[in-house]
Structure formats: structure tokens, C-alpha cells
Write a structure and sequence with these properties.
The chain contains 14 helices and ten strands. It is of the alpha/beta class. The chain has two domains: about 45 residues, Arc Repressor Mutant, subunit A (Orthogonal Bundle); about 250 residues, Rossmann fold, CATH 3.40.50.
């Protein structure tokens, strides 16, 4: 009976602490025990299964889907958001809101934040970020060239500059095209001192926020002039490419698809991305599902923010 008597007292201590909300010192005084004994009893209550920890997920969260994503793709962290409909505009808005909150609460003083500037979902994230009062980011670095069609080229500059302003950072822009006309043209562009300064910060980025693109570009990217021609995209598809991160393409198994086109891109490479401490990817939508699966297998992504429809496809379909 001695064990039963011991457990009875352990249960009483646990009841006083967890249900009656009494402090350990009060419990010790009430039962004439030392505070160290009370602390040991509380630990034993968990070991003996007297106290069980239960996490009750709030409505609108999807811990099981997140767990399946982590398991299937070896992903460190996944955030799956509620969305009322499987439509691009709705998906981008919900992902952007969730990513904004996550970034706000996880930024640290002195962070160097890299941002891929031609993503509508990232733009939605920036629209939802509140001005940061506690954390002061050192730089916000544009990781893909932003020049192009004058009608839309300000998008990249505005996104980078606004994110820098909201996070208390200094913006570092990449004032060149994302895709040069030739390898030789790229070499001339990256010789510019301002461009060299920004590219020189790539290896100092501590957190990168990226989008994931399908072979077929988004409307914004297509209009920007920062993309390849239809025939060039066709050749990429024939080489097995299913998607890109900042115009760096990969196949369904996450293997980089490198062609001569890769030499014309002015921006962060997949090898450079892999060296960054934390990479947050924002992506969702039916037409991007295969691209997201391939991106996760590149092993460059640490956090995926996606919607429940896309997450369900990622864990149930044969990719």
C-alpha cells in the first residue's frame, strides 16, 4: 500500500497546483513539505500519468496536416492556414496574413532579411505586417533583380522598401533586371557598385522569404519582363523542371535543373539559399502543388506557409 499512499499524495499536490492554481510554496506550507519535494512530486505526477498534457487545437488550425507535411518532406516546420475557397486570390491573402504574423513574432535584432521581390503572396505578407517596435532588422536585401517593364517594375522596389521601413531596416535594392539578355550582359550589370554591394550581402542573410513558382509564370511576373520566353520555358519543362524559387528551377525530386538560362539570372542561387539559417516559403494553389513538392525536396526550405487545400494535395497525391 506504500506506493498507493505515495501516489495519493502526489495526486493531491498535482490537484492543488493544476486545478486549484496554488503556488508551490503555498502547497509546501499547507502540506508541511519542502518546496523541493513539491517540485519532485509534480514531475512524478507526469511520469505516473496522473497529470496528462492535452493540446486542443483551436478551430481553423490544422496540426495533423502540418505534421504530415513535416513527415513526408522532412520539413522542419509547416504552417497550414484556413481558406474558404481554393482560389488563388483567397489563398494568397490567407497565406500572406499568416506569414506576416509568423515573421513579426520571430524576427530578432540584427537580422538580415532577404526577400524575393516578384511574389504576389509575399506582397500580401508585407501588406499585413505591423511596424516593428522591438526588433530592429539590419538590412532588407532584395534577392532577385527588379527592373523590367516600367509599368510594373516599381513593384519590387516598393515591396523591398516598405518591408525595410516596417522592420526598421535599411533597404538594399538590386536595381537590375532579374533576367539579363545574355551571360555577357549579366556580367556588365553585376559590375555596378550598387549591385555588387547588394549581392555581397547574400551570404549575410539570416532569414529569407521566398515564393515558389510554377513553370507557367504568374501574371505579375509575366508582365514584369523578368522572365524567360515561352520557348525557353518549354525547354526547361522538357528538362524536367516543375517550378522555381527566384527563377532557379528544379524538378519534382528537388534536383536543380541547370541550363544556359541559369547563367542569365541575377539573384540568389539555390546553393546560396541552402546556406541561409532560415528560409520561409510562401506558396499555395492547385497549379503550384507539384512545384511546391519539388521545392520542399530541394531541402532549402525550413518553414512552409500554405493553405489547407494545397496541404491536403501535398500529403495525399502521388508526387
Amino acid at each position: 500500500m506504500s506506493r498507493l499512499n505515495e501516489l495519493r499524495l502526489v495526486a493531491r499536490v498535482a490537484q492543488m497546483y493544476h486545478i486549484e492554481n496554488r503556488r508551490q510554496g503555498d502547497i509546501a506550507q499547507h502540506l508541511n513539505l519542502s518546496q523541493a519535494t513539491v517540485s519532485r512530486m509534480l514531475k512524478r505526477a507526469s511520469v505516473e500519468d496522473i497529470v496528462r498534457t492535452t493540446v486542443v487545437p483551436p478551430l481553423g488550425t490544422f496540426p495533423e496536416l502540418e505534421s504530415k507535411l513535416r513527415e513526408r518532406f522532412g520539413l522542419p516546420e509547416a504552417i497550414v492556414v484556413e481558406c474558404s475557397e481554393d482560389r488563388d486570390a483567397a489563398v494568397m491573402s490567407r497565406i500572406g496574413e499568416a506569414a506576416a504574423h509568423f515573421l513579426e513574432v520571430t524576427l530578432s535584432d540584427g537580422d538580415v532579411l532577404g526577400v524575393s521581390s516578384w511574389s504576389q503572396t509575399i506582397y500580401k505578407m508585407v501588406e499585413n505586417i505591423h511596424p516593428q517596435k522591438s526588433a530592429s532588422v539590419r538590412y532588407v536585401v532584395q534577392t532577385l533583380g527588379g527592373m523590367g517593364d516600367p509599368a510594373v517594375q516599381t513593384h519590387a522596389t516598393q515591396l523591398t522598401a516598405k518591408l525595410a521601413r516596417l522592420t526598421g531596416a535599411e533597404p538594399k535594392l538590386l536595381p537590375v533586371q532579374g533576367v539579363a539578355s545574355s551571360k555577357e550582359a549579366k556580367l556588365v550589370m553585376i559590375d555596378d557598385p550598387y549591385v555588387r554591394e547588394t549581392i555581397g550581402l547574400f551570404d549575410r542573410i539570416t532569414t529569407a522569404v521566398v515564393g515558389i513558382g510554377a513553370i507557367e509564370p504568374s501574371e505579375l511576373l509575366a508582365r514584369s519582363g523578368n522572365f524567360f520566353s515561352a520557348s525557353e520555358l518549354s525547354r526547361l519543362a522538357e528538362s524536367g523542371a516543375v517550378g522555381d524559387i527566384s527563377l532557379r528551377f528544379f524538378d519534382l525530386q528537388g534536383t536543380p535543373v541547370k541550363t544556359s538560362l541559369d547563367e542569365r539570372v541575377i539573384g540568389l542561387s539555390l546553393d546560396e539559399l541552402a546556406k541561409i539559417d532560415r528560409v520561409i516559403a510562401l506558396a499555395g494553389g492547385k497549379h503550384k502543388t507539384a512545384a511546391i513538392a519539388g521545392a520542399l525536396r530541394t531541402k532549402t526550405i525550413d518553414v512552409l506557409v500554405t493553405d489547407k487545400f494545397t496541404a491536403e494535395r501535398l500529403v495525399t497525391e502521388d508526387f
